[in-house]
Task: structure prediction
Amino acid sequence: MIRHSFCILKGIGERLERRLWESGIASWDDFLRAESIAYMPMDTKVEYDLQILRLMEKIEQANTQYLYRVIKRKEQWRLYDALRDGAICLDIETSGLRPEAGGYVTVVGIYNGVEYRGLVRGFDLDAHNLKRLLRGYKYLITFNGLGFDVPFLRKCFPDVPLEIPHFDLSIAARRVGLNGGLKAIEKHFHISRGHEIAGMTGYDAVRLWEQWKSGHEESLNLLLEYNRADTINLMGLADALYPLLRRSTGFEG
Result:
């Protein structure tokens, strides 16, 4: 989708993007091949040519810092097909309080499409391990990560770099008319969970952490199983939402 996108260029909105598609300019290659565009001044066309060529180069290089910086957050979902092979899903559990009120991260779940890792406070959750596990990945997939997970992690682990393109599935779901939390959206797409964690919520994750601190060993295992489902299911949800997002732009029409 990214190579068909024009609203990521400075000065182009969704209306002009659709106008370009409707006039037969459906891709960056089409735009570059066009000697002129009737409704666009020539100097503006040249500037957009330069922006497109720069983006092509940075995508080829997988220069995620540049892409993160220049593509609007709400449009970074358009990179999904280009960067999926380098994507990582992330979900955190917390103590229930905000960092400024003494809250902290209890579990960080990371899934790369093959392997899940759950880092636990007091065991292996620290900045060094987070940096090591995140190193090399090009794309971040979360559910409400822009509003919660990433800001929380930045406050607790300020040295961990999180400046890579981000596909926030909660924003994506609302964009295609689906409301509710992660579990509700999963049900819509028939994405299932194990019976032992079915119906659990973030409140239960806080409760399980407190139980584990009180000596209930099994509570930590259940908390990790809950986080594992939260994290792994993001990949399937991204696969389900992405084509709906493409359709919502009007491009396929």
